[in-house]
Design goal:
Elements lengths: L8 E7 L2 E8 L6 E6 L9 H12 L3 E5 L4 H4 L2 H4 L2 H18 L6 E7 L1 H10 L6 E7 L17 E6 L3 H10 L6 E6 L11 H16 L13
Parallel strand pairs: 3-4, 3-5, 5-6, 6-7, 7-8
Antiparallel strand pairs: 1-2, 2-4
Helix pairs in contact: 1-7, 4-5
Length: 225
């Protein structure tokens, strides 16, 4: 196991004939894993996702950030919004993680942003993936609308208070999730760039995953009140 203070390990994931670059971080005695699905125009190097991932590492969770698309594919707008394709890639990464790192006692969750959140919700709807919890940060749950009723695990939609269109859209999608919750970040816009906004996302995310991935021993350290 790697220490959370170290830089993530650069690896590659094979996905249906493609090699996708990824970053893996596994703290010592990791009690669960979170796979990140970035949104349109982003990648495994997303600074916002990296900040959340480091917070999860400090909480004792392993993280996997990977590119859902190749560089060439990411320049094609049709591919960027092809939720079916993004979901397939996320399933490939999930299968890879189960085969190489997940132990019996460890739960697996998804953290999705923008279009990646739609892929995370759709991927979580498949029982074989055995996903214990999904977070959507500023995510397009509406792009996975047809699959939301099949998501049986806890799902948390995190939206900025001033992200008007997405907030209203998320409120409409929420009743379709059997175990869904909506968390509104005060004063935040779509990218959570306001002071303290992303810090609150980190705390909420750590608490959510510690609670739902079976990592209950440390959860009280990250409660948000």
């Amino acid at each position: 196991m790697r220490d959370a203070a170290l830089a993530p390990m650069e690896i590659s994931i094979e996905a249906r004939g493609l090699t996708l670059p990824a970053l893996l971080e596994c703290p010592e005695d990791a009690s669960g894993w979170v796979i990140f699905a970035h949104g349109s125009g982003s990648s495994r190097l997303s600074p916002r996702n990296h900040r959340v991932a480091r917070a999860l590492n400090r909480a004792g969770l392993g993280t996997l950030l990977f590119d859902l698309l190749t560089l060439e594919e990411s320049e094609d707008r049709e591919r960027v919004f092809d939720i079916g394709l993004l979901t397939e890639r996320l399933h490939d990464a999930t299968a890879w993680l189960y085969a190489n790192h997940v132990l019996r006692h460890q739960g697996v969750g998804y953290f999705g942003a923008s279009t990646g959140a739609a892929a995370a919700l759709r991927a979580a709807a498949e029982p074989w993936a055995r996903i214990s919890g999904v977070i959507s940060r500023g995510g397009r749950a509406d792009l996975a609308r047809a699959d939301l009723e099949r998501v049986s695990c806890p799902a948390l939609l995190i939206v900025g208070e001033n992200d008007d269109w997405l907030l209203e859209t998320s409120k409409r999608m929420l009743p379709l999730l059997s175990r869904g919750e909506l968390m509104v970040i005060p004063g935040a816009t779509h990218l959570f760039e306001e002071p303290g906004a992303l810090d609150l996302v980190q705390k909420i995310s750590a608490y959510f995953f510690l609670k739902n991935l079976g990592a209950r021993v440390r959860q009280t350290r990250y409660a948000t009140g």
